[in-house]
């Protein structure tokens, strides 16, 4: 199981092929990735940055276009099939991710993920503007306990090694 691993490697096709290589014949490989278009869970950060009038730095780590693939059921199925897996299936899972708003902000505020790298590069006043927009935009996802209930989804695919 590679849970959200293919989202964080430089060459997803090579990583999928390596997963296939290390699994014995008769075994299975399962992976999850975030889909495209992104659900609210993943969009919230970019929306807060844009609403604060800040452009995301263009030199942040990105997957090279020649290594990218469609983040759809068909795209992930194709990636695993091209890696040599058989009987590949993919489904979209949807759920509400529940989190404390402060805890959810803390990850990027402490440099986690690409959004964290973008925040770290901003002056204090700009980070504060982004935080204000995060608070405003996330309000629509707060439940009666003031917790975030962010709709999200993931693609789950599996295939066999013959």
TrEMBL record:
UniProt feature coiled coil, ranges: none
Gene3D superfamilies membership: Vaccinia Virus protein VP39
Entry-linked InterPro entries: Methyltransf_11 (IPR013216), SAM-dependent_MTases_sf (IPR029063)
SUPFAM superfamilies to which the protein is assigned, alphabetical: S-adenosyl-L-methionine-dependent methyltransferases (SSF53335)
GO molecular function: S-adenosylmethionine-dependent methyltransferase activity
Any one of the GO BP annotations: methylation
One Pfam family named in its UniProt record: Methyltransf_11
Claim: Iron-sulfur is one of the keywords in the record: no
Domain annotation Methyltransferase type: ranges: 2-30
Domain of life: Bacteria
UniProt KW keywords: Methyltransferase, Transferase
Protein name stated in the entry: SAM-dependent methyltransferase
Origin species: Micromonospora sicca
